[in-house]
Write a structure and sequence with these properties.
Methylamine Dehydrogenase, Chain H; five-stranded mixed sheet; five-stranded antiparallel sheet; 1% helix; glycosidase; Endo-1,4-beta-glucanase/xyloglucanase, putative, gly74A
Length: 1017
């Protein structure tokens, strides 16, 4: 089964789109999220690597093209750079399934509008229902309408379509064909609300395998496409004639002639097959339909192509090879017509593995056809095309010596979407299971010439990353990928020349290198015959295939001793874990370990291996010959990720758990004899290490997890004492983190694997803010009294669109006052030492305060979180007159601004007693781009009782407009109002609630209005 089916994750249902509720830190900490650091994220170039079931051209505007993928989101074509722009990277952890795009529609009447039906699975693998996303700026920003059923962007039948269709005459009307027997749905308000079309009663009845025990092939594939007759309406008025295709072999085609009020089965229609594609030729009044005997995309052995003439109601079989012929071994899909010459049409084999796909072309409405290749004298063929894969050379799939009649590269497979550009008869694009191909000289076919096919996939990164390693020397990173094996990436900015070969896995499931001999590597993966193992001693320059132990059906996971002298392999399908000390030529079963255990090697001691299975941790001290259980309780049974730290023997970090059990991050410093759970991390799903920060001796730690109630990617430079978020809400990548690796050579670099958005790498841009996506500015006044009767007044403010700066000054009446930077004074805050004078830019201090934190405030924290002065031990010495006058400036570059209706005044005595009275509402710009922005409003309760049923208001004076919101109910338009949801309407003392906004800017930079309302008093 394709790897895209197997990668699944169960999470708690949430419709949050990148927002979060502030954490309650109790009495010793302010309530905001972990600091964040600006990071630049780019893809390690692979170009493609996954199924593209839909390519959608806008019928009005040239070069406005979209592509939808089954697990990697949606893309828009950028003709200026000849590359694709990802549009759904904001999809987060809780709604990860929205990266499965079941259908997409672009509006010909208003090209700025685009719609997407999203959801990954219709079974239990995806806990969330689907949604219809809508955009008025070509996918730069989106609004979502949840559906009352699931959507299966990675389910069988996902290549049929398009299920979303916009009325070409009245573009406020949109139809969606649902799966699971849920019928036909309609929106009359540009996709904001949806209702089931009750008069359309056939929701489909076809499931590929109704008895599938895996709960995947047994789902009804539903209503599969909708198309209109534009001539049946006029601009601004509803189109009257609508055609609908249904996954029902006996009742597949329906028509409405009254604008969707009533529907009837088209008389005389063919039966026995499923209608993959329906394309209407408005010039000639003809509906073309491509049929196959299954829903695809992996199967299909028979089918036909039919033509329905609307004026006469006649059906004509125009199949290039009819289903009655013994020469047919595939079904049809990939149907398209040339809108400039509508008698010209093309259709493709839906799936034809051998010797290759077949494309057919007709210039007379299907009366006759030519093929993209023909048999001559077996095994020879003649070709109407040539292929140039120079830009993506791995598309030969490692086959440099094909045996006729096969060629390399192939045209592809899973050819559901074949599209002639409606604005350019010479351009054809089509999707495969691995890429997008295109030609710019399509009409050469008709004159007896050859068309030139090239990949048109730059920027569309769709691999599922199963493992990744970054060794200390050689190539910076090695990937283990689903469907296309994986690569040695010598240059992150260039497409690799070839995937791994000998063995050539369909999917590489695990890879490792010997820490002390990094040129020695091992990888395991899936072969047609089961699983396999590959070994190299020259850093992947060449590989050889080892022998398999008994019972291997898939790759499983593997670990290599630090010196390369032993391999421990837990293969899929086997009842044992195995050891080899002969580079995989012989194997010995390890009886102490359960099948499927996760294996890792110590990165220093070549005699040590570690294993984890069902909440039990195991250790070997004899090079894997035997293992002993060391920890049998306290580790969650769901934990599947742990790593040993390079350069430190016996130092192990373990991540995992679930929302219904123990969840978090654990550490062992004694080779797994015991583990300690870190209080600084709420949840963790993977952990890795990279080069230490300047001045640090311990490697940087990276986790995929939750810190301070925020889900994201985090880094620690102090052994987990504190964390900085290094992704943001616009870069969440859905289901990510199955595979991650720090770079041991470049500080701050993380390789981040995703399930459908490829392999990314992040580098620090060096700017740290106080929260996950924003910094807070406010005005502050304070007075400090000490035993020497010195006093000081401080004020600070921040207002900048491109930088965040804070300045503060303290004046004293003391005759002995001096000016000092207090450079030697530092606070120990949960193990991290910060300068005594810090602001929220540094991630320390009250949420709504930019003032310096005084010495007495620091000293008031419970031990050991006191003051350290000039390297001396902790002290709570009050300020003396010699240090009562301070001048300091803190600045950093940022694109984040805020306004606040809050103020803070405090009086702090040398005994550390204090009182706090403050306002509580802050508006924060979290991101902005050309004409859009995201923002957050934070409501903090500084009182002694709960705030219930809160409501806040704000107004934009520059014409800004909100397009979507999350974690609140939004109403009104300038002024806007927001109220809490059921789970965040009550704010307890000390807590912060945050909700998110997305909008379009008015004039200039995004504005920061003042927030008012009862909680802001």
């Amino acid at each position: 089964m394709n790897i895209r089916v197997l990668l699944k994750r169960s999470v708690q249902t949430s419709l949050a789109m990148g927002a979060f509720m502030g954490a309650l830190w109790g009495s010793i900490a302010p309530s905001w999220a972990a600091p964040s650091e600006n990071y630049t994220w780019k893809n390690v170039r692979i170009d493609g690597g996954g199924f593209v079931p839909g390519i959608i051209f806008n019928q009005k505007e040239a070069d406005l093209i979209y592509a939808r993928t089954d697990i990697g989101g949606a893309y828009r074509w950028n003709s200026a750079t000849s590359s694709w722009i990802p549009l759904l990277d904001w999809v987060g952890w809780d709604n990860w399934g929205w990266n499965g795009v079941m259908s997409l529609a672009t509006d010909a009447a208003d090209p700025n509008r685009v719609y997407a039906a999203v959801g990954m699975y219709t079974n239990t693998w995806d806990p969330n229902n689907g949604a219809i996303l809508r955009s008025t700026d070509r996918g730069n920003t989106w609004q979502a309408t949840p559906l009352p059923f699931k959507v299966g962007g990675n389910m069988p039948g996902r290549g049929m379509g398009e299920r979303l269709a916009i009325d070409p005459n009245r573009n406020s009307i949109i139809y969606y064909g649902a799966e699971g027997g849920n019928g036909l749905w309609r929106s009359t308000d540009y996709g904001a609300t949806w209702a089931k079309v009750s008069s359309f009663t056939n929701g489909g009845n076809y499931a590929q395998d109704p008895n599938d025990p895996n709960d995947y092939l047994n789902k009804i594939q539903g209503v599969v496409w909708v198309t209109f007759d534009p001539a049946s309406g006029s601009a601004g008025n509803t189109s009257q004639v609508i055609y609908v295709g249904v996954a029902d072999t006996q009742n597949a085609i329906y028509r409405s002639t009254d604008g969707g009020t009533t529907w009837s089965r088209l008389a005389g229609q063919p039966t026995g097959f499923l209608p993959h594609k329906g394309v209407y030729d408005a010039v000639n009044g003809v509906l073309y339909i491509a049929y196959s005997d299954t829903g695809g995309p992996y199967d299909g052995a028979k089918g036909d192509v039919w033509k329905f003439t609307a004026s006469s109601g006649t059906w004509t079989n125009i199949s290039p090879i009819p289903s009655s012929s013994s020469d047919l071994y595939f079904g049809y899909s990939g149907l398209t017509i040339d809108r400039k010459n509508p008698n010209t049409l093309m259709v493709a084999s839906q799936i034809a593995w051998w010797p290759d796909a077949v494309f057919f072309r007709s210039t007379n409405g299907g009366a006759s056809w030519t093929r993209i290749w023909d048999w001559t004298s077996y095994p020879s063929r003649s070709f109407r095309y040539t292929m140039d894969i120079t830009e993506v050379p791995w598309l030969n799939f490692g086959n440099s010596n094909p045996v006729a009649p096969e060629v390399s590269p192939k045209l592809g497979w899973m050819n559901e979407s074949v599209e002639i550009d409606p604005h350019n008869s010479n351009r054809l694009m089509y999707g495969t299971g691995a890429t997008i191909y295109a030609t710019e000289n399509l009409t050469s076919w008709d004159s007896g010439g050859q068309i030139l096919l090239k990949p048109m996939v730059k920027g569309l990164e769709e691999t599922a990353v199963l493992d990744v390693v970054s060794p200390p020397v050689g190539a910076p990173v090695y990937s283990a990928l689903g469907d296309i094996g994986g690569f040695r990436h010598d240059d992150l900015t260039k497409v690799p020349t070839s995937m791994y070969t000998t063995p050539n896995f369909s999917s590489t499931t695990s890879i490792d290198f010997a820490e002390l001999q990094p040129a020695t590597m091992v990888r395991v993966g899936n072969l047609d015959s089961g699983g396999g193992i590959g070994v190299t001693t020259n850093a992947g320059g060449s590989w050889w295939q080892g022998q398999n132990p008994p019972g291997v059906t898939s790759g499983g996971n593997v670990a290599l001793a630090a010196d390369g002298g032993a391999i421990v392999w837990a293969p899929g399908g086997s009842t044992n874990v195995y050891l080899s000390t002969t580079f995989g030529s012989t194997w010995t079963a390890i009886s102490a370990l359960p099948a499927g255990a996760v294996i890792e090697a110590d990165r220093v001691n070549p005699n040590k291996f570690y294993a984890l299975a069902n909440g039990t941790f195991y250790v070997s001290t004899n090079k894997g010959a035997s293992f002993s259980a060391t920890v049998t309780a306290g580790i969650p049974a769901a934990a599947r990720k742990f790593k040993a730290v390079y350069g430190r023997e016996g130092d192990i970090w373990l991540a995992g758990g679930s929302s219904t059990t123990t969840y978090g991050l654990w550490r062992s410093t004694n080779s797994g004899a015991s583990f300690t759970k870190l209080a600084s991390v709420q949840e963790a799903d993977n952990v890795t290490f990279g080069k230490a920060a300047t001045g640090a001796t311990y490697p940087a730690i990276y986790i995929i997890g939750k810190v301070d109630n925020v889900r994201g990617v985090f880094r620690s430079t102090n052994e987990g004492a504190s964390w900085v978020r290094i992704n943001d809400d616009q870069r969440q990548y859905g289901n990510f983190g199955e595979a991650i690796s720090g770079d041991p050579r470049i500080y701050g670099r993380l390789y981040l694997g995703t399930n459908g958005r490829g392999l990314l790498y992040g580098d620090s841009a060096g700017v740290v803010s106080s929260s996950s996506s924003s910094a807070v500015s406010s005005s502050v006044s304070s007075s400090i009294a000490s035993s020497s009767s010195s006093s000081a007044v401080s004020s600070s403010s921040i207002t900048s669109s491109s930088s965040i700066a804070s300045s503060s000054s303290i004046a004293s009446s003391s005759s002995s006052s001096v000016t000092s930077s207090l450079s030697g004074e530092r606070c120990n805050w949960y193990g991290t030492r910060y300068p005594l004078c810090v602001t929220t830019q540094s991630g320390w201090g009250w949420e709504n305060s930019q003032s310096c934190i005084s010495r007495s405030t620091c000293a008031a924290q419970p031990a050991p979180f006191g003051i350290e002065g000039s390297g001396s031990s902790a002290s709570s010495t009050p300020l003396s007159s010699s240090s009562s006058v301070v001048s300091s400036v803190v600045s950093s570059s940022s694109s984040i601004r805020s306004s606040s209706s809050s103020s803070l005044s405090s009086s702090v005595a040398s005994s550390s007693s204090s009182s706090l009275v403050s306002g509580a509402c802050t508006y924060v710009i979290t991101n902005e781009w050309n004409n859009g922005f995201t923002a957050a409003i934070r409501i903090h309760n500084n009182g002694n009782s709960a705030i219930n049923s809160w409501s806040v208001n704000w107004n934009y004076s520059d014409g800004s407009r909100i397009t979507s919101s999350w974690n609140a109910t939004l109403s009104g338009t300038n002024p806007y109002s927001a109220t809490g949801l059921s789970w965040n309407a009550s704010i307890q003392p000390g807590q912060t609630v945050e909700f998110g906004l997305q909008g379009t800017k008015g004039t200039g930079s995004a504005s920061t209005p003042v927030v008012t309302g009862t909680p802001c008093q």
